TrEMBL record:
Listed name of the protein: Membrane protein insertase YidC
Transmembrane segments: 6-23, 364-384, 472-502, 522-545
Function: Required for the insertion and/or proper folding and/or complex formation of integral membrane proteins into the membrane. Involved in integration of membrane proteins that insert both dependently and independently of the Sec translocase complex, as well as at least some lipoproteins. Aids folding of multispanning membrane proteins.
Pfam families assigned to the protein according to its UniProt record, in alphabetical order: 60KD_IMP (PF02096), YidC_periplas (PF14849)
Protein's gene: yidC
Length: 617
């Protein structure tokens, strides 16, 4: 492995370590607009406590005292209505006219149980309406509906929940369930209640004790968060991790989502955004039954609801990039595709290519192999150029060794003499580095993409039952750095990286310097093994296949590279340089030549100063 490749590996390692150690933090200007504080993972607020109280039957006097003008609908029949389409099963309750339970029909939990995204025990909501006699929780009222349980097919189905407060006065909640998909349109209407409703916005409170759907609880907690989009389309999120966070957003919010690793429960304002919002993500390390407690406390503009514009959406479904773009502006940002410089590569290349290959290849292990081959074919010109650069270094190896013997251990002089040699034969020291660096964004993009691809979730390949998480080939008590398991795909990736390093070291001359680069080329793969051991099996399998394909590719390229012809070209360049016929270098080569001349002049002056100092003595 030559110095250029080691530089590339160092950059990858820095990226991986930085990704592990650095947690995204809100920008300073955002912190100024947000009030952030740490809270204890106890009850989220007084509203949550009120919601979780056991329901007690109300007599007429108690109902009148608590609900005022709404006392007539404070009692009634609590009935469940189950409506489903091909993708989702929804349970509505006539108490509250709300969504009580959501089951995603096409997905299972890691232990193959039905994936219940929302249930009545873990998810609590409050819809608080300001009235002249106090605040009334619309989710405690009883509603009437003519809808019966059933399956939606063909056209979307409307479910109307109506609470008749008095003749000509009512509250309506209207849900529109599509024939397929995960988006529910939701309209909130206040009919004839202008004299009853007071000033002030409606409060929507949602607390969700997030269930564990994937096998790694720690990884689930790091991924679980609340995402939101402000009115000026700034995408924000609570810090992902295992700590508590509370954020008060002072600017209006268009939508928010309670985000699991691969699934979302979201609320979208279709018209006017939500004027105020408080978000919390709370973790109790002692409670392994809850990933995180997510709390959203927002306000809905009452003027819009009075005017018949209280139109919203609920999204209950997978965090799938292909599905989210049509839900709301920037809603697909719930799928993390990497830093801003890498995101376009994933968004406009890898995701479309991956989805295209899905149409033809049903086995996701084979799909990853096809993706590797496709990417390697695209990068073949760069790979060829890098190999030719290494071939030039091999041709020059005898002269480089002669320089080392001639100048001894003076590293500065060695470098200077080497640069002179490169200049004479027309070899750029960066000619091999640039192709390697050009492939770095590809590796970084995949590193960001694979952990967030729901397409890999629960897709088996060989011994791995789920390519979206690690393949625990061997489990053992938790150890520092490596955890409590060993991933076989990670071991294979490490072995192939060492084999690739050995192959390169046999064909690459030793580079001068204080560090043994060839030895480091064996150390780096071992370091990567500890970093990637808990990453998705799909990612480490991709890197494993990539190493194998790269070695094969270089073996094929080797057959087309004639080192005797390369030596003849270098000798001709040397002859032209000696006779002054060589093409004048430009760009970086000219700058390098200038710096080399300056360094040589400085060295001569230092030698002269030392000689004069010795003469004076």
């Amino acid at each position: 492995m030559d110095r250029n490749q080691v530089i590339g590996i160092v950059l990858i390692l820095a990226m991986l370590v930085g990704y592990q150690l650095l947690v995204p933090k809100p920008a300073p200007e955002k912190q100024a607009a947000q009030k952030t504080q740490t809270t204890k993972p106890t009850t989220a607020s007084g509203a949550a406590a009120a919601i979780t109280k056991a329901e007690q039957p109300l007599d007429s006097a108690a109902a009148k005292a608590q609900f005022g003008d709404f006392a007539t609908v404070a009692t009634g029949e609590n009935r469940d209505i189950v409506v489903e389409n091909k993708d989702i099963k929804l349970t509505f309750s006539t108490q509250g006219g709300r969504v009580k339970e959501v089951i995603l029909k096409n997905y299972k939990t890691y232990d193959q149980k039905p994936l219940v995204l929302i249930d009545d025990q873990r998810s609590k909501t409050l819809l608080e309406l300001p009235t002249n006699r106090g605040k009334v929780d619309l989710h405690k009222l009883y509603y009437q509906t003519t809808t019966q349980s059933g399956t939606v097919s063909g056209q979307p189905q409307q479910i109307v929940f109506r609470a008749e407060v008095a003749p000509g006065q009512s509250v309506e909640q209207v849900y529109t369930v599509p024939a397929e998909g995960y988006v529910l349109d939701y309209d909130l209407k206040l009919n004839g209640l202008s004299s009853t409703v007071a000033n002030g916005d409606i409060r929507f409170f949602w607390e969700d004790k997030m269930s564990q759907y994937e096998n790694d609880l720690s990884n689930n907690r790091r991924a679980a968060t609340i995402d939101y989009l402000t009115a000026d389309e700034n995408f924000e999120k609570l810090t992902e991790g295992e700590s508590n966070q509370e954020v008060t957003v002072e600017e209006p919010v268009q939508w928010f989502t309670i985000k699991h690793k691969y699934f979302l429960a979201g609320f979208v304002a279709k018209n006017a955004p939500m004027p105020k919002a408080d978000f919390k993500a709370l973790v109790d390390p002692a409670d392994s039954s809850v990933v995180k407690t997510a709390v959203a406390d927002v306000t809905l503009p009452i003027a819009d609801v009075k005017a018949g514009k209280g139109q919203y959406k609920f999204y209950y479904g997978p965090n799938d990039f292909q599905l989210l773009g049509s839900v709301a502006p920037e809603f697909d940002q719930n799928v993390y595709l990497g830093y801003s410089i890498l995101k376009p590569i994933n968004k406009y290349f890898f995701v479309p290519v991956f989805n295209l290959l899905e149409k033809f290849i049903s086995n996701y292990g084979l799909l990853i192999i096809a993706l590797v081959v496709f990417v390697k074919l695209l990068l073949t010109p760069l790979t060829y150029k890098s190999y030719v650069s290494m071939a030039k270094m091999r041709v020059l190896a005898p002269e480089i060794n002669e320089i080392k013997e001639r100048v001894g251990d003076d590293m500065a002089k060695q470098q200077s003499e080497q640069m002179k040699l490169y200049q004479e034969v027309g070899v750029s020291p960066l000619s091999g580095c640039i192709p390697v660096l050009a492939t770095m964004p590809i590796l970084f993009s995949l590193f960001m993409l694979f952990p967030n691809l729901i397409e890999l979730r629960q897709k088996p390949f060989l011994w791995a039952s789920d390519l979206s998480t690690y393949d625990a080939f061997i489990t053992f008590p938790t150890l520092p750095f490596i955890g409590g398991h060993l991933s076989l795909f990670t071991v294979l990736m490490t072995a192939s990286s060492i084999a690739y390093a050995y192959y390169n070291n046999q064909t690459t001359p030793t580079q001068p310097g204080p560090v043994n680069m060839k030895a480091l080329s064996y150390v780096f793969p071992l370091m990567f093994m500890f970093v990637l051991n808990s990453y998705p099996a799909g990612l480490t399998f991709y890197y494993f296949v990539s190493n194998i394909v790269t070695i094969t590719q270089q073996q094929l390229i080797r057959r087309f590279v004639d080192e005797d012809k390369i030596k003849a070209v270098l000798d001709e360049n040397r002859r032209k340089s000696a006779s002054g016929q060589a093409k004048k270098p430009g760009g970086f080569q000219a700058l390098l030549q200038k710096q080399l001349a300056a360094a040589e002049e400085a060295r001569k002056q230092a030698d002269e100063a030392q000689r004069k100092a010795k003469q004076k003595k």
